[in-house]
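> forwarded from #structure-qc
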């Protein structure tokens, strides 16, 4: 008989953080314009949740940033987590990606033609995942409400709650 869920480690993933687990873990977070990028390798029991806030790491500032600061950016975080899965010996073909968030939850000036942070985050995530040859198996992107998500890394199950 397996362990009851209440015995699992639980981690709340803050904006700008990325966490990887090699044992079954419950990850939770709340997303607005940020994206939540889930990496799973079900046969190996490895899972991760990244919560980047902005689309692209500024090239001019990249050398002065530490890892924690760089994790605020979608492009850096996806590439970094892909590299970490590579180091664990997980072929990219085994990695499943689940992608959430990127909503337009911040006030936008009427008539503005500028893309929102949420839209830019979604576009960056999809572009980098394709460049890194990672397969998105599930997603819920965009919209105008926030999301609360809970990931069970042992099963890959994601519970999604829309916030109003």
């Amino acid at each position: 008989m397996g362990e009851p869920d209440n015995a699992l480690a639980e981690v709340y993933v803050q904006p700008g953080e990325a966490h990887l687990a090699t044992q079954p873990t419950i990850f939770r977070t709340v997303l607005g314009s940020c994206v939540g990028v889930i990496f799973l390798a079900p046969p190996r029991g490895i899972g991760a949740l990244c919560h980047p806030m902005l689309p692209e790491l500024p090239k001019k500032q990249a050398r002065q940033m530490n890892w924690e600061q760089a994790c605020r950016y979608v492009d850096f975080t996806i590439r970094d987590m892909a590299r970490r899965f590579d180091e664990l010996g997980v072929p990219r073909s085994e990695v499943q990606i689940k992608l959430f968030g990127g909503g337009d939850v911040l006030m936008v000036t009427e008539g503005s033609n500028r893309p929102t942070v949420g839209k830019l985050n979604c576009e960056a995530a999809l572009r980098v995942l394709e460049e890194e040859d990672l397969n998105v198996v599930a997603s819920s992107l965009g919209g105008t409400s926030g999301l609360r998500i809970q990931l069970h890394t042992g099963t890959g199950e994601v519970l999604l709650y829309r916030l109003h």
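QC bot note: Residues 117-131 form the longest helix (15 residues). The chain has one domain: 5-162.
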